[in-house]
């Protein structure tokens, strides 16, 4: 039975699949750290490895998956490769997931603005 939702349109099947794929990519602590770092701006593998507390090899493997999933893009400059978030929606997903975790830990009030949930979030501006 569908009480009260007559005429409600469900999202397109392909959009639901793409959203589920993106959320699966977020379901890893190292990838979340990498994406959080990229919310601060473009970065190299070495810098991301330092920030995420892991090896450049591990970061490269995660970045490869994130790039194939369309969550990050890269550009080459000489021998260096720099990564950025594919779009601002990725940063918002990360921000919301961490805001939810902060709320679940009991550190924030319910129904505040997302930027008030996670320390440092207000300063994290996704690239345009």
Task: Describe, in plain words, how this protein is organized in 3D.
With 128 residues, the protein is mostly helical. The protein has helices at residues 13-26, 29-39, 45-52, 56-68, 88-104, 114-117; strands spanning 43-44, 72-77, 80-85. A three-stranded antiparallel sheet has the order 1-3-2. β2 and β3 (80-85) form a beta hairpin. The longest helix has 17 residues, at 88-104.
Observed structural traits:
single chain; 128 residues; mainly alpha; three-stranded antiparallel sheet; globular
Total count of helical runs of at least 4 residues: 6
> Which consecutive residue ranges, at least 5 long each, have pLDDT under 50?
114-128
Distance between the termini: 43 Å
- Give the overall shape: globular
Helix fraction, binned, reads: 40-55%
Biggest sheet: strand arrangement: 1-3-2
Strand content: 5-15%
Order of helices and strands: HHEHHEEHH
Question: Whole-number radius of gyration?
Answer: 17 Å
Mean pLDDT: 85
């Amino acid at each position: 039975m569908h009480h009260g939702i007559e005429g409600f349109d469900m999202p397109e099947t392909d959009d639901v699949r793409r959203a589920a794929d993106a959320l699966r990519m977020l379901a890893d602590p190292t990838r979340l750290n990498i994406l959080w770092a990229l919310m601060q701006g473009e970065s190299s593998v070495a810098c991301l490895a330092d920030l995420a507390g892991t090896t450049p090899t591990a970061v490269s493997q995660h970045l490869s998956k994130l790039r194939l999933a369309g969550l990050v893009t890269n550009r080459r400059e000489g021998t260096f490769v720099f990564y950025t978030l594919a779009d601002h929606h990725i940063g918002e997903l990360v921000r919301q997931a961490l805001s939810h975790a902060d709320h679940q830990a009991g550190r924030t009030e319910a129904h505040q603005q997302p930027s008030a949930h996670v320390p440092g979030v207000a300063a994290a501006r996704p690239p345009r």
